[in-house]
Write a structure and sequence with these properties.
With about 290 residues, the chain is mostly helical. It is built from eleven helices and no strands. The chain folds into four domains: about 80 residues, Orthogonal Bundle (Helix Hairpins), CATH 1.10.287.1080; about 60 residues, no CATH class; about 80 residues, MazG-like (Helix Hairpins); about 45 residues. Helix 3 runs antiparallel to helix 4, helix 7 crosses helix 9 and helix 8 packs antiparallel against helix 9.
Length: about 290
């Protein structure tokens, strides 16, 4: 069937494309080989590509990356449908039901068009408290009695640490002020220094240093959380800053016909400081 040039595809078309790709007789051999576990790496990759496009302000590609991520959802939905586990309409129903249930301050009486009385407006703090209370009820219904039960294991380490800390804080397990967190960071630095200075046999020393370094990283994540900073995003930006500065150093050496590997460390340090003083990375730098 021919389509007008200006006609837009709809979600039904996307679902049909996915069905065709998984058709046992006429589908795509690669798509037919896939299963839930084999798609997971692609899902993570697509999510990070979306994050990268947003971080770089590359909005020409944000819609494309969102589409790639949506395709992952549709892929899982098709495989679930084939097994009789779930389908796309069930995914949509579950999502809408959860959003309505978790936003009683928006959807009166649990109805999408239900309007809450203007006099009952909730503050951001109240909304967050209510959100966490509803999630606790949901965990209890799933026989998950710990506040940390449903924190995903597959999250990046920094993100998971921050989510674990945030979840613990919702039940009152938190530092009374940020000064205590900062003091803890200094304490962990001292313990790491002691571990690095210790002289037991190498394997034990390495394990001790790893443990203390882990504690330090965990405390730094806590410091980020208490300052309203996303630790994962902060480290990504710091890494990007290092990459940009290192590239600038390489470029200056190339202009002089030199290479990093042939340049003494003190000269590299001098160039690094020059780059920091004289240039600014895209999106600015402190």
């Amino acid at each position: 069937m021919n389509r007008p040039d200006d006609a837009r595809y709809r979600i039904e078309d996307l679902l049909r494309v996915m069905q065709r790709l998984r058709d046992p007789e006429h589908g795509c051999p690669w798509d037919l080989q896939q299963d839930f576990p084999t798609i997971v790496p692609s899902t993570l990759e697509e999510a990070y590509e979306l994050v990268e496009a947003i971080e770089h302000g590359d909005f020409d590609h944000v819609a494309e990356e969102l589409g790639d991520l949506m395709f992952q959802v549709v892929f899982y939905a098709q495989m679930g449908r084939e097994r009789g586990l779930f389908d796309f309409p069930q995914i949509v129903h579950t999502l809408v039901d959860k959003l309505v249930r978790r936003h009683p301050h928006v959807f009166a009486d649990g109805e999408i068009e239900g309007i809450v009385d203007a006099d009952a407006d909730a503050s951001v703090v109240e909304v967050k408290q209510n959100w966490e209370a509803i999630k606790r009820e949901e965990r209890a219904a799933r026989q998950q009695h710990s506040a940390l039960d449903d924190v995903p294991l597959a999250l990046p380490a920094l993100s998971r640490a921050q989510k674990v800390q945030k979840r613990a804080a919702t039940v009152g397990f938190d530092w009374p002020d940020v000064d205590g967190v900062l003091a803890k960071v200094h304490e962990e630095i001292e313990e790491l220094s002691e571990a690095m200075s210790a002289a037991p046999e190498p394997a034990a020393r390495k394990q001790q240093v790893e443990d203390e370094l882990g504690d330090l990283l965990f405390s730094c994540v806590n410091l980020a959380r208490r300052n309203g900073i996303d630790a994962e995003a902060a480290l990504r930006r710091a890494t990007a800053k290092f990459e940009w500065r290192f590239g600038a150093v390489e470029a200056r050496l190339r202009d002089r016909g030199e290479r990093v590997e042939d340049t003494p460390l003190d000269a590299l340090d001098q160039l690094w400081e020059e780059v920091k003083r004289q240039t600014r990375e895209p999106r600015g730098d402190a």
